[in-house]
Amino acid sequence: METLRLYDFLPSGNGYKIRLLLTQLGMPFDRVEVNILKGETRTPEFLSKNPNGKIPTLEIEPGKYLAESNAILVYLSECTEFLPYDRFSRSQVLQWLFFEQSSHEPFIATSRFWISILGKAEEYREAIEQKRKPGYAALSLMENHLTSHIFFVGERYTIADIALFAYTHVADEGGFDLTQFPAIQGWIERVKAQPRYISITQE
Amino acid sequence: METLRLYDFLPSGNGYKIRLLLTQLGMPFDRVEVNILKGETRTPEFLSKNPNGKIPTLEIEPGKYLAESNAILVYLSECTEFLPYDRFSRSQVLQWLFFEQSSHEPFIATSRFWISILGKAEEYREAIEQKRKPGYAALSLMENHLTSHIFFVGERYTIADIALFAYTHVADEGGFDLTQFPAIQGWIERVKAQPRYISITQE
In terms of domain of life, where is this protein from (chains A, B) (predicted)? Predict the structure, then answer.
C-alpha cells in the first residue's frame, strides 16, 4: 500500500480528526501543510485535487483523492474498532457525523476561526453573536447525551467521538464556556486518555 | 419487519430524500406530517424522538429512531443498488453527502425556505444576499462535475444523486437561476427519468 498523503492545516479541527485517527490506527502518513490563510487551497493545483478547495484532502494513492473530513473518517475506519459493525450503530455514528457538520461545526468552529485563527473578534462581533445560540444548543444536546453515555455510540470510542471532539475541546477558543457542561468535560478527559492520543497542534 | 414510520414535512427537501428513496426501493412506510412552521418539532414529545428537533426522523422499529437525512439515506441503501459496494466509490458517495450538508444545503435550501416556504423574501433580503455567492459556488462545482459524468459517482444513480437532487431541482424557489447550468439541467432530467420517481410534494 502506498503511504497516504494528507493535505492539512495544523490549526484545523477538521484536519485534526484525520491526524488523530491515522495516529491511533498506527498508519504512517505524509502531512502536507496547506496554509488556508494564504489562499493555498485556491490555487489551480490544489483545486485539481479537491475542487471544493478545502482541507483536509487525503491522497489515497497517487492521483486519487478523498475530501470531506467525516467521509475520510469513515473510509479509514471501516473494518476497524473505530467504526461499529452493527448496521444500526454504524448509522448512529453517521447521524452524529452529519450532526457535527450541520449543527455544530458551522457555529463552534467558525467562531473559533474568526476569534483565534484570524484574530478578528471585533470585526466579526455581530456574526459571532449570531453563532452563540445554535452553538450552545449543540453543546447542550451533547451534554444531555453524555449524561447517560460514556461515548456517543455503543459505549465505546468511535469516529463519532473523534469528529465531535475536534472542535468541542477547543470551543473556548471560539468563546464558548465549557465549565457549564460537566458531562462534556468528563468525556473530553476520556477521549484524551485513549491510546496514542495526540493534541490538535501536534504534528 | 415493522413498517417504517417517517416523521416528515412535505415541502422539505431533506424529507423528500427519504420519501424518494423509500418509494424507489419499493418499501412501504407510514408518513407522519410534522408542521415545522407551527413548532411541532419543538414539543417534548417530538424531542424525545429526535433531541435535535428536526425532520426527517425515521422510526425504524417502535422506539428506535434515526435522524439526519443523509445518515438515513445510507442506512436504507446499504446492500442495495443505490449505494456502491466498492469501498472507494462508497466513500465518494459519502463525500458528496457531506458536501451537500456543508456547502450546498445551508445556502440553497435556506434561501428557498425563507423565500418560498416562509414567504419572507423582503425580511431576509440581506441574509439571502449573503447566501448567493456560496450557493452559486456549489452549483458551479456540480456543473463542472456533471460536464464529464452522467451521475455523481460511478456513472450510475445512487443516493449521492438523491441527496443533491432534493434541493438543486427546486433551487429556483430559492432565487437561484439554473438556466446557466446546462449539465445540471441534463442531470435533473436523468434523475426524473428514474423508475418510480416521485415529485417533491407527492405523498
Answer: Bacteria
Determine the Cα–Cα distance for residues A7 and A9; give it in Å rounded to an integer: 7
Together in a domain, A110 and A54: no
Nearest CA distance, B17 vs chain A (angstrom):
15
| Per-residue pLDDT reduced to its tens digit, B98-118 | 999 999 999 999 999 999 999
Indicate yes or no: CB of B91 within 8 angstroms of CB of A74: yes
- Beta bridge partner(s), residue B32: B7
| Cα-based angle B94, B104, A89 (whole degrees, multiple of 5) | 35
Tell me: pLDDT of B1 over 80.
Answer: no
Cβ contacts of A64 on chain B, cutoff 8 Å: 88
- Which of A29, A54, A77 lies at the terminal end of a domain, its last residue? A77
**Whole-angstrom Cα distance, residue B113 to residue B116?**
6
Cβ contact, residue pair B71, A102, below 8 Å: no
Residue B72 sits in a domain of what CATH number?
Answer: 3.40.30.10
Is residue B171 one of the residues assigned to a domain? Answer: yes
Query: For residue B202, what are the CA distances in angstroms to A117, B4, B38, B94?
Result: 46, 18, 21, 27
Those residues of chain A that have pLDDT short of 50 are none
On whether both B22 and B113 belong to a single domain, the answer is no
Residue A189, all three cell numbers: 478527559
DSSP A37: G
Gyration radius of chain B over CA positions: 17
- Angle formed by the axes of helices B125-147 and B182-192, to 10°? 80
Residue-wise pLDDT for A40-87, tens only, equals: 999 999 999 999 999 999 999 999 999 999 999 999 999 999 999 999
- B29, B52, B77 — which closes off a domain? B77
Which residue in B52, B68, B95 is closest to A68 by CB distance? B95
What ipTM was predicted for this assembly?
0.97
Any idea what the CATH number is for the domain that residue A161 is in? 1.20.1050.10
